[in-house]
Design goal:
With about 325 residues, this protein is of the alpha/beta class. Helix content is about 40%, strand content about 20%. The protein is built from eleven helices and eleven strands. A seven-stranded mixed sheet has the order 3-2-1-4-5-10-11, with helices on both faces. It has a four-stranded parallel sheet with strand order 7-8-6-9, with helices on both faces. Helix 5 crosses helix 6. The longest helix has 21 residues. The N and C termini lie far apart (about 50 Å).
């Protein structure tokens, strides 16, 4: 651990998320305010290994807070999962005089930060993922924007589904986590919500819900399907064959990653970015920033990665209760 931090590197890794630019901006400006230089590492860990490193100042992050994506770029990097790649990354940091690195990304990015820390590089992680699947924090950068983007798109699909008296299956992102599906299922008034954490793959229950609802006079049926379950198109074909009701699948896809971040994503990302710069300058390392019980805090990366996260039982039961279906899957 270095006695004094003179230069901080910042990178974004894994999937991009709206609000990452706000976090970058805060890291840069807070570090400069503390008398520390900042270098931007482009394209995540791949850019680190390829020495795609630039000097950053306050002007470098002007007019970026409202932009989606990440101005530093991001990429997957298999080489950095190897010990050889991790040693090379640490050597590059030393070559450029980088005393500490702020990593903005998901749990895979945290593992990279953890590896850098073991190679003697001070590291701080910031949760940047639309999936909301990092256990130690109640908030991740980009989730709020993504779930609002999905909600608005589902409202539009529901309008045409109602007009044509269809069943609609709408697939949302989230990898193996069902948080976007859960939130949209409740917010969009879905009849069925399919979550990787809860779904029993009994498709007949869904078919029965659709048939029973149609008998009760409901003219359309909305199913929110999480990415971790997937296969929405083939599911739609099977449901249509079983019910005789026109069924269409819509996969929202990467539109959920894009767009101008919401106020919440801009604000929280800014506070997290500043917090990360502060604790790095204060001598902390191998930590991740988190929002827990309404307060900003930090955890040891090893501890954070060992935590487990699941859909809260109460929230899931509420989603079942609020559904107009006789039984929510």
């Amino acid at each position: 651990m270095s006695d004094e931090i003179k230069t901080i590197g910042v990178l974004t890794s894994g999937g991009d998320a709206p609000g990452m630019n706000a976090a970058i901006r805060a890291v840069v400006r807070k570090s400069i305010a503390r008398g520390v230089k900042v270098k931007g590492i482009k394209k995540g860990y791949m850019g680190l290994l390829n020495e795609e490193i630039i000097d950053m100042d306050s002007h470098s992050v002007s007019d970026v807070i409202q932009r989606g994506g990440t101005i530093l770029g991001t990429a997957r990097c298999k080489e950095f999962t190897t010990e050889e790649g991790q040693k090379k990354g640490a050597e590059v940091c030393r070559k450029y005089g980088i005393d500490g690195v702020v990593v903005i990304g998901g749990d895979g990015s945290y593992r990279g930060a953890q590896a850098l820390s073991k190679q003697g590089i001070n590291t701080i992680g910031i949760p940047g993922t639309i999936d909301l699947d990092i256990s130690c924090t109640d908030y991740t950068i980009g989730f709020d924007t993504a779930v609002n983007t999905a909600m608005e798109a589902i409202d539009k699909v529901r309008d045409t589904s109602s007009s044509h008296e269809r069943c609609s299956i709408i697939e949302v992102m989230g990898r193996n986590a069902g948080y976007i599906a859960l939130w949209c299922g409740v917010a969009n008034g879905a009849e069925d919500i399919l979550l990787p954490e809860k779904y029993d793959f009994n498709e007949q229950n869904i078919i029965n819900n659709i048939i029973n609802n149609r008998k009760r006079g409901k003219t359309h049926h909305l199913i929110i399907n999480a990415e971790g379950i997937g296969h929405s198109t083939s599911m739609a074909r099977r449901i249509e064959a079983a019910t005789g009701i026109e069924t269409r699948a819509t996969i929202l896809g990467y539109m959920q990653r894009g767009g101008s971040p919401t106020c919440k994503d801009r604000y929280y990302a800014s506070i997290m970015g500043a917090y990360a710069a502060d604790i790095l300058c204060d001598g902390k390392t191998n930590r991740v920033v988190a929002l827990k019980h309404g307060e900003f805090t930090d955890y040891d990366i090893d501890e954070a990665l060992a935590m487990q996260k699941d859909i809260p039982d109460y929230e899931y039961e509420v989603s079942r209760l609020l559904s107009s279906s006789s039984k929510v899957i």
